[in-house]
Amino acid sequence: MRKERILELAKGFRGRRKNCIRVARPAVEKALVYAFRDRRQKKRDMRTLWIQRISAAAREHGVKYSNLMHGLQQDNIMINRKVLSELAMYEPYSFQALVDQVKFMRAGTAALSGSSDLGPALA
Amino acid sequence: MESRLGLLRSDFAGQAIQSARQACRSIYSDAEDDLPRQYSKAGRVDGPYTLKRTPVFAVVEIGPTQYKVSADDLVYAEKLKGVTVNDKVTLNRVLMLGSRYETVIGRPIVPEAFVSAAVEEQILDGKVLVFHKRRRKNSKKMKGHRQELTGLRILEVHGIESEQATPAEEAIAA
To answer: Residue B109 in 3-state DSSP?
Structure first.
């Protein structure tokens, strides 16, 4: 029955929204619309989270996120941000290997410009 | 009966799209054909097996996603075509290998490295409800969707050694 299904979907709602069909129906519809929208937003949010994690881990090694990603792209290393964040969390030495590789390749070009990555403020 | 005009238009559109794709092809994918096929069948599982967890991982590309895998991992990937349950599969696109002693970084993939996996199940994901409502217009649409997935049990990571041979062992082997 349609009503039973709606009340089933309304479990956990507050007050009459979970028990009374006339209040639950629009609440469930709104919830389903939000679910559709947020399935797309989840992908964006996860990527933001990965980038934050990669940035934090890279700065621990003295490299900025932007420079790290640029270096990886130039080296044709196609590991994506999701896995990079997992490496930063669970395989710190492998992540450091990637950072060192990027630093090594940038050392060649940085010798021309003579600037350090994070600047004098951060050590 | 298709109209000639329709065919010509679609031809032209194909070429336009192709040339645009060529123009914006980044250095990420020099050529999709250079990379090996993502997976290939490699026999079947004979009987029950137990897997040892080794401190080795690989970053492997299946479908559009990448996974960091070790032995005895269960990975749910997009449905793989042409495989059935209890097939063994080799995953050829390995982007990175790591062990306790070394890390191998592929550019973009590590040659001669692969991951062997067994197809554990071909299932449908849980149902998501796709609901659209246009407010004040008396219009709503409800659809259910179940994505098809393949459950892969990772058997072994090939291309890296889990234990570093000590110089004494190397001398004995030589």
So the answer is: coil
pTM: 0.79
Distance CA A28, CA B32 (A): 45
- Taking Cα atoms as reference points, which of B62, B129, B59, B133 lies closest to residue B98? B59
Q: What angle do CA B116, B119, B125 make, to 5 degrees?
A: 130
Q: How far is B55 from chain A (nearest CA, A)?
A: 11
List, run by run, the mean pLDDT of 10-residue segments along chain B (174 residues): 47 53 48 76 88 92 94 94 92 93 91 93 96 96 96 93 64 60
CA distance A112 to A96: 24
> Which fold, A3-113?
c-terminal domain of poly(a) binding protein (1.10.1900)
Rounded Cα distance between A25 and A31, Å, is 10
Size of interface A-B (CB pairs under 8 A): 69
Domain limits, chain A: 3-113
Beta bridge partners of B102: none
For CA atoms A40, A41, A43, A44, give the dihedral sign: positive
What sign results for the dihedral spanned by CA atoms B45, B50, B56, B59? positive
**What ipTM was estimated for this complex?**
0.82
Residues in chain A closer than 8 A to B27 (CB atoms): 73-74, 76
Q: How many CA atoms lie within 13 A of A15 on its CB side?
A: 4
d(CA B96, CA B115): 11
